[in-house]
Amino acid sequence: MKRHKYQYGEDASQWGELFLPELPPGAEHRGVVVVIHGGYWRSQYGAELGEPIAKDLAAHGMAAWNLEYRRAGNGGGWPNTFIDVLAGIDKLGDLAAKHALNLGPVVALGHSAGGHLAAWAAGRGKLAQLGMPDADRQVPRTSDASAVHLTGVVSQSGLLNLAEAEKLNLSNGAVSNLLGGSSSKYPHRYKYADPMTVLPLAVPVIAVHGSEDTTVPLGQSASYVNAGTTANMETRLVRVPGDHYALIDPKTPGYRACRELVRSLLR
């Protein structure tokens, strides 16, 4: 396995690390898995959470891009966290030729807040059509000729329903902390950032949730899948044993289920 670290911007948190399995001469990597870590979008949680996952994926023959981004508390929040996630995914376009990456399939594997960002990024093409710029701040660039579009998402106990997450005051106001205030103050900002807004998506989203998760309620996954299913989108809820963090522990059955779902989407 080889690993290569690249900056996609000038900030210290704008980087990703590419983990690559060994290839036979002349072969190429079939797709890439974008690993997006969680931590309720707060700066004390970083890409070290995604590193064991990226290593495991590469050990099982999949190229993995462990993505770091600015979080609330170190220059992130609205809009920079969103800008970074799209720019970080787009960086793969610059790396494809150098590392023999076939970007036909690009699947995001996101845990917790990273599940939110993965599902949100998968809707970038529809976001451009919403016409909902925030009056006082720039909005993330969602589409141009160099954009790398996700072809599938596996969400690991993801925060997929921001309106409900705000209502429940999850993690002591984490959504308000991310978006700079309440939904009553920034309604357009909330709508733009919520993965529920752009349903149905044209790509599959599989929402995996731990049966003993007390950090992110099951309803975050279930409400998203129910809305997507009603809109005839390819989505499903997969419940696995374990708590919130079991899904990012390569030794657990819950994580291994996520890995196989990612593999199926890469096919």
Write the layout of secondary structure elements.
Blueprint: E1 2-7, E2 15-20, E3 29-36, H1 51-59, E4 64-67, H2 80-95, E5 101-111, H3 113-122, H4 124-127, E6 152-156, H5 162-167, H6 174-179, H7 187-193, E7 205-210, H8 218-230, E8 235-240, H9 253-266
Strand order of the largest sheet: 1-2-4-3-5-6-7-8
Structural class: alpha/beta
The total count of strands amounts to: 8
Identify the overall geometry: globular
Percent of residues in beta strands?
15-25%
The ordered H/E elements are EEEHEHEHHEHHHEHEH
Task: Name the CATH superfamily assignment.
Answer: Alpha/Beta hydrolase fold, catalytic domain
For the record, what CATH class applies? Alpha Beta
Number of helices: 9
Largest sheet: 8 strands, mixed
Q: In terms of per-residue confidence, which ranges show pLDDT below 50 for 5 or more consecutive residues?
A: none
The CATH architecture classification is 3-Layer(aba) Sandwich
The rounded Rg comes to 17 Å
Q: In the CATH scheme, what's the topology name?
A: Rossmann fold
Helix content: 25-40%
Give the termini distance in whole angstroms.
21 Å
Total of domains: 1
Describe this structure in words.
The protein has an 8-stranded mixed β-sheet with strand order 1-2-4-3-5-6-7-8, with helices on both faces. 32% of the residues lie in helices and 19% in strands. It contains 9 helices and 8 strands. It has a single domain, classed as Alpha/Beta hydrolase fold, catalytic domain (Rossmann fold), CATH 3.40.50.1820. The longest helix is centred in the N-terminal third of the chain and has 16 residues. The protein is of the alpha/beta class.
